[in-house]
Amino acid sequence: MSHVVSPIREVLVTGGKSYHDVTQDICKQVEGEPTKEWKIAFAVSCVVFAYGAYCLGYTWWQGIGVWGLNKTVGWAWDITNFVWWVGIGHAGTLISAVLLLFRQKWRTSINRAAEAMTIFAVLCAASFILAHMGRPWLAHWALPLPNAFGSLWVNFNSPLVWDVFAISTYLSVSLVFWYLGLVPDLATIRDRATTKASKFWYGLFSMGWNGSAKTWARYEYVSLILAGISTPLVLSVHTIVSMDFATSVIPGWHTTIFPPYFVAGAIFSGFAMVQTLLLVTRVVFNLEDYITIEHIEMMNIVVTVTGSIVGIAYLTEFFIAWYSGVEYESYCFVNRATGPYWWAYWMMMSCNVISPQVFWSKKMRTSILASFILSIVVNVGMWFERFVIIVSSLHRDYIPSSWAMFSPTMYDIGDYIFSFGLFFTLFFLFAKFLPVINMAEVKSVMKGVSSNYPHKKKAGGDKEGVSAH
Amino acid sequence: MAGHSHFSPANVEEHFEFTSDTRKKLMVAMVVGAVLLGIGVLFPGGGEHEAAHAVAGHAAEHGAELTGGAVSHHETSWNPLNRLWVNLWLNGVYFSGIAVIGMFFVALQYLTKSGWSSVVKRVPEAFPRFLFFTAPLMILLFIFKGDVIFHWMHHGIMDPANEHYDKIIAGKKGYLNFNFFLIRMVLIFGAWITLWTVMRKKSIEEDLIGGNENFFKMVRIGTGFIVAMGISASLSAWDWVMSIDTHWFSTMFGWYMFASWHVSGIATIILTIVLLKEQGYMKYVNENHLHDLGKLMFAFSIFWTYVWFAQFLLIYYANMAEETIYFLERWEGHGGIYKASEILNIFLNFFFPFLIMMTRDAKRTTIFLKICCAFVLVGHYFDFYQMIMPGTVGPHGGFGFIEFGTLILFASGFIYAVATELTKASLVAKNHPFLEEALHHDI
C-alpha cells in the first residue's frame, strides 16, 4: 500500500502519539488494577445476568408456555430478540473484513471492540434459538448428525436449518478472525508482563508469536483470506435470517427485497451498537486520541447511509403492496401504519429513517452527545422493526375470529434481560483483560494518519506535543 | 513504483485525440448497424424471426394462459415495426444505465474520498454525455410508441366499458398513467443530466484553477447525486422495465436492475481504460489500478447474482401463481424462445466473471479483463433483453437483424459520444488532491 497520503486526509491518531505511546495507552487498562467504575459496571451486569439466567432457567424448566404467545401470534419477542442480536452482530465482521478490503484505515481503531461485540451479540442471538427449542439439551438435533432415531433428520428445505449453518459458520469465522488479530497484541502484553501469571496466560494465548517478518507476512495473508471469506459470509447471515420470513406466504413477510434490506438494517444497527460501546469506552479508558471525532463521524455516516437504504426498502414495500393489487398485502401495510400496532410502526419509522437524517448536519454528526443518543435510538428502532414485521403480520390472521394481540409476560422480558446481562458481562470482561484497540494495526497506519507525521507537522501539526514526549 | 517518481501532475495534461480515422470507423459501424436494422425491419421473415413465427401458433395458446390478455392483444394487431420500437427502448434503457453509472461511480469516489481512483475518474466522467441522446429518444418513444411497449397503455385497458378492461391493471392507474409517468421520466433524466453537468463543470474548473475548493464542492454534488440515484434507480426500474409486465411485481426489482446497470457500467469503465491504454494513453494507470477495478467487476458480478438469485429463490419457494408466472413465461412461454437468454444470463453474468476474475493475476492482466468485460457486457445486454422482450414482443421476438443492428448502432453511438466528451478535458485530473496517492498506488 502506498505511503503517500494526501494533505487533505483527516488525522486518525491525534495528540502526537509515538509508537511507544500507543502500546502504553492501550495496555494500561489490561496491566493495571481494575478501576472502581469497571468494578461497579461489572457487578451491575452480573446482577442483570443472574436475574436473566433465573428467568431463562424458569423458561426451560416450565417450557415456553410461560411466554405470552397465543394461537395467532405464535412467534413474537423470542424471534424479535434473535433477529435483533444477529443484526447487531454484523458490524464487527463488516468493519474488519469489508473495510479491510476497501482499505479504510479508520477501521484499525475500532475493529477489535467491534469484533468482540459481534461475537457476544451472536452468542446472545444463539441463546434465543436455544430458548426456542424448549428442550435445549436436544439442540444438536438441528444438525444433520447420523442417529438411531429412524426418520430424525433435518429438513434441508427449511430456511431455519440454513440459519443454523449460516450462523454457526459465521460465529466460527468471526471468532478466528478476532483471535488472529489479537495474537500480536497478546504477544506485546506477554513481553511486557511483570507477573508470572500474566506471562503464562498471555504467553499461552499468543501461541509463540515472535514478530518476525515471516510471521507478519503470514498474518497479513491470513487476514486477507479471512476477509475474503467473511465478506460473503456476513451478507449470507442476514440474508438467510430474512428468508426465515420471506419464503413463507404471510402478508408482509413474503417480499423479495427482504435479503438486501435485512442486511442493510443489520449493518445499520451493528454500527449503532459499536458507536454506543465505543463512545463509552473511549472516555472510560482515555482513548480519545485513537477513537477520534473523525471515527465517530465516519460511523455516523455509515449509520445514515444504511438507515436511508432501509428507508427506501420500507417505502418500496409499502408502494409495491399497493401496486401489486394484492388485497392481503395492502391491508397488512395499511394496518401496520394505522392498526392497533401503529405505535410500533411509527416508532420504527421515526427511529430508523427519520432520526438518522439529522446527521446530514456536520455539527450533529461530530457531536458526541448527539451520536450517543442517536446510536441508542437506532437500536430501539431496529428492535421495533423486527417486532413490527413479526407481530403485526401475524396478529391479523386470515379469519377475523382468530385476530389477537400479543402481550409479553415477565419471562419474555426476563429472557431479553438475560441477553443484555450476558452481553455486557462478556464485554466488560473483554474490556478488562484484552486490549480494546488493535495496537499492531493502529501502529501500521500511523505513518500516514497520525498527527505525529512530518507531512502534517509542516501543515501546522502539533510538533510541540511530539517533542514533549 | 520507481517509474512514477518523476511523474509530476503539473506537467501531464494528456489529451485524447479523436482521430478522423476512428471517427470514420464508428460512422461505418453506425451505418452497418442501421442497414442491419433496416434489413430486419423490411424483411421480417429473416433469421430467428421465422422460427418465432413457426412457434407462434403454439405460443398463442400456450402464451394466452401465461400472459393473459397481452398476447391475444398482440396477435390481433401485430406490426413488425413494433419490434423496432421495443429494441430502441431496450437499448435506450441499457445504455442510459451504463451512462449514468459513469456518474454514479465518480460520485461514489468523491463521497468515499477514494484516492486510487482519482487517476481514472475522467473516463467514467465522460459517460453521461450519452444521456443527451438516450433521454430524448426514450421520452419520444414513450410519448409516441408507449402502447407498443407497455401493456398498461393499451387502449381501453383501464376502461370498465371496454372489452380489453383489466381490473388489476386499472387498479394501478394512480401510478401508471401517461402524465405521471412522463413527469417522472423527465424528472429522472433531468436530475441525472443536471447534476452531471454541474459536476463536470467543477471538474474541468479544477484543472484550470487548482486548489481544493472544487474537490469539496464535488463531494457535495456527488452526495446529492447518490441520494437522487437512491430514489431514481428504483423508480426507473419500476417504470421503464417492471411495468412492462404490468401484472407482475417484485420489491427487489429496483435493486436488481440497478445491480445489472452497475456491473455493466464498471465493465465499460474497465474496457474503455484498457482500450485507451492500448492506444498509448493513460500510461500512469498501471496494473494496481486495474486490479482494483477488476475487483469491483468481480464483486459486483457476485452482487448481481446475489440479488437475482434472492429474487428468484423467494418467488420459486413461495410458489404463488401471480409471481412465478414471470419466470415461467421466460423459461417455457412463447414456445421457449427466451430460454436461451435465461441460461446465458447466469453463465455470462455469474460463472464466467466469477471464474475469470478469481485470481489476482487475472485482475492485473488486460487480456483477461477484456474477455471478462465482453462477457459481462453481452451478458447484461441479455439480462435486459430477457427483462423487456417477453412482455413486449412475446412470441414475435428473437435475436435477429433488428436486435444486432440496434445494438451496434447504440454501441457505436455510445463510443462516439464518450470519445467526443473525452477530448474536452485532460485524461488526468491534474489538480485532484488525491492524484499523488493514486500515482503511488501499489497493492
Question: How does this structure look, described?
Answer:
The complex is a heterodimer of chains A (469) and B (443). Chain A is mostly helical and 469 residues long. In chain A, 69% of the residues lie in helices and 0% in strands. Chain A has helices at residues 19-31, 36-62, 77-88, 91-101, 111-133, 159-192, 196-205, 213-246, 258-284, 293-323, 327-338, 342-354, 362-365, 368-394, 410-433, 439-449, 454-458, 463-467. The longest helix of chain A is centred in the middle third of the chain and has 34 residues, at 159-192. Chain A is globular, with a radius of gyration of 24 Å. By secondary structure, chain B is mainly α. Chain B contains 17 helices and no strands. In chain B, α4 (81-111) crosses α15 (366-392), α8 runs antiparallel to α9 (213-241) and α11 packs across α13. Residues 1-6 and 46-75 of chain B have low confidence and may be disordered. At the A-B interface, α8, α9 and α10 of A face α9, α10, α11 and α17 of B.
